[in-house]
# Entry
Amino acid sequence: MKKIERAAPVNWYDPTQLADTALRSTLSEIFATYSDKRETYSHTAIPEPTLVGEGKEEVWVDYAADTGDGFDATYSVAYCLANPEIISAAHKDWKVADALILGGDQVYPTPGVDEYERRFKNVFEAAFPRNSLVDAPRLFAIPGNHDWYDGLNKFLKIFCQRRKIGGWQTAQERSYFAVTLPHNVWVFGIDIQLEGAIDDLQLQYFEGVMKKIANDAKIILCTAEPNWYQCTEDVKSTQFRTLDYFIRRIIYQEGVTNEQEQKNAKLILVLTGDSHHYAAYKAEVDYTTNIDKPETQKKWETLFITAGGGGAFLHPTHNLHDKNEAGENELRYEFPEKTKDEGRSFKSKINWNFTYKECYPAKADSKKMTWGNLKFGFQSLLLSALFGFLYAAVFLSVENYSIVNDAAYNPIVSFSSHLAKQPLANVTWEVTKEVLANPVALVFSLFFVTIFFVVATLYKRKPNLMIGLGITHLLVQFILMCTFIGLSIHCISHCFFSDDTNKMLSPGFRVCAFAIIFGIGFLVSGFVMGIYFIIANLGFKVHDNEAFSSLSVQDYKNFLRLKITKEELTVYVVRIKKVAKDWREKTSADKTVSDLVPKKSPLQFEEVTSHIFKNNNWS
# Structure
């Protein structure tokens, strides 16, 4: 048996990790803007839709997203996908699904070969080895932003060359795909790269698919992120417009006036990951394809589900909008389109009303977890150590390069000697003045406070609020730095060096002060940053990602099981309350296909719930 590396969860607040991810994110956005990898598809043949479950009366499709992080969480989900009978006593007859769809971000933090191998491929291959089944289930994946960080190079090699990943057989040739299932059900997986537009080749591909589907088809759409979260009463999401455009142009064939070409397809389900929790919204859609013709008005229901619990750290749910908090999420706009056969323009109008249904974990539990940021300094040791070093570096800068003319001493003294005889109430101001006047100390201070401002502005929405929060946070951190440096020098000089000027010029004083100031910076800055995340997240409903990536919660995972029959589509929601932490190699007594099985901490599941689509409505 191949030895499996059990990778730890990504430490998102490792300073080198922060810098590397920021650099790759910036470069990937530039790359995506000027050199779209998907354009290379123009030199390849257009692939045919993939057929899954041919001839079956009942077909199963699993959906998981945001895999490829820490071993325990990712393998726990993969283990359930390969052994679904363990999930619930009420579902002991469950078998491995006919297809597995991965909803984006198959690897963290960046898509290097090594990261894909140890955080995704090796984990899934151990959970479902190649010799498990002769008729291998099909595997499809759409890229998330982390898969895009190298311009899709590794993603295309792993998922688009019809290779096997364990017992699953990859079956797509591009970063998007169409799957045809029994009972006139289709799955579309689209690639909206880095919150960008849908490329023309992709639109042409799906236009060709629409010509192949039968009338009254039911469509399940997989996309990269839940951009409908931003469709609140006061926010018109530009990101959602891209998804809306695809739905209207492709699925509902806006602009196709030839009745023989119209398929009357129905979008019944939209699936996504990116947010690492489970949340369901029911969308009631009021759509008029031509506002000059009232008879073109259509109304339907679609279920929008976020299921990003495949292995990455948990995201909160308590800031999700619902009727009690923000009213119905709504987006209204109009834009002109040209009909293909007449060339005249007309206006369409669509009204999306999203109503919150349920989430996991519960909002109350999510709020409680936020308070874990009180321990931010100890959960992000390397970043806290950087803060402590910057505190100490500022001290050394003013101590070594600042001398003060002081009549009490003859004729000059070190800055610490000067500060020691100042009243405690003045130490903050004295240090602040010296830092602002000392170029070296000022550079260290600017680097220090810039970190807090950048962290605040990572949240791209509500820019005015985030700038205000960022400035407030950095000012608090700067004032506390000056205060604690001053208090430390004052107390050290009195308690250990008796205000002896000569002793305070010794290396021993500097070493002692450096160590103490480093420790105080380590404790204070991390603690204050944790408080900032708590206030921002609970009070202002921002920083979901930053506040919870620090917690690195590995439990509360989820994925979906879709059961398609002639009569209905059932979406089973699998909730894993606790992932397994200890694993051992399987023995002959273990009735499992997986190479590793839980040892001392078995998986714990919540009750499996379900949504049922029947008679054109969701229950």
Observations:
- The two ends are 46 Å apart (CA to CA).
- The chain has 16 helices and 23 strands.
